[in-house]
Amino acid sequence: MYLEIITPEHKIFENEADAVQLPGKDGLFQVLDNHAPMISTLKKGTVKIDIPDSYKKYNNLSSKIEPDKSNDRVLRLEIDGGVVEVQNNKVIVLAD
User: Fold this and answer.
1) Residue 65's beta-bridge partner residues?
2) How far is the CA of 63 from the CAs of 25, 48, 66, 84, in angstroms?
3) For residue 38, what are the CA distances in angstroms to 11, 13, 35?
4) Measured in whole angstroms, how far is the alpha carbon of residue 12 from the centre of its chain?
5) What are the domain boundaries of the chain?
6) Does the model's pTM come out above 0.70?
7) Residue 28 in contact with residue 22, Cβ under 8 Å?
8) Which of 31, 49, 48 is nearest to 39 (CA)?
9) Which CATH number fits domain 2-95: 2.70.70.10, 2.60.15.10, 1.10.10.60, 3.90.1640.30?
10) Average pLDDT by consecutive 10-residue portion of the chain (96 residues)?
């Protein structure tokens, strides 16, 4: 699936992802390929991104994204809240 993470300042991430775990208002949830369409609000917490390849292949990672120390195919991003839309294997996160 294709994942975009956008803040009011700029686009933080734009690439393929195998999975994304998000801090929903009612708890953590995960989005995978072919997920049903949905819109959800997000609370302060960590967005966990599972990527197909090592993060070392990405030349332009935002400084706000932290690679996982134990797995080079996992990225983490702290957000203060926001909204996510999932539709047709595209996930758009509008983050604060």
Assistant:
1) 77
2) 26, 15, 7, 21
3) 21, 20, 8
4) 9
5) 2-95
6) yes
7) yes
8) 31
9) 2.60.15.10
10) 94 95 96 95 97 83 88 95 97 96
- Provide the token pair at 66: 């932290």
- What tokens does 11 get? 């686009």
Of 72, 66, 70, whose CA–CA distance to 54 is shortest? 72
Query: How big is the chain, counted in residues?
Result: 96
Structure tokens at 77: 């991003």
- The answer to whether 43 and 24 have CB atoms below 8 angstroms apart is yes
What is the C-alpha separation between 53 and 7, in angstroms, rounded? 24
Of the candidates 50, 65, 54, the one whose C-alpha atom is nearest the C-alpha of residue 20 is 50
State the amino acid at position 66 in one-letter form. E
CB 5 within 8 A of CB 76: no
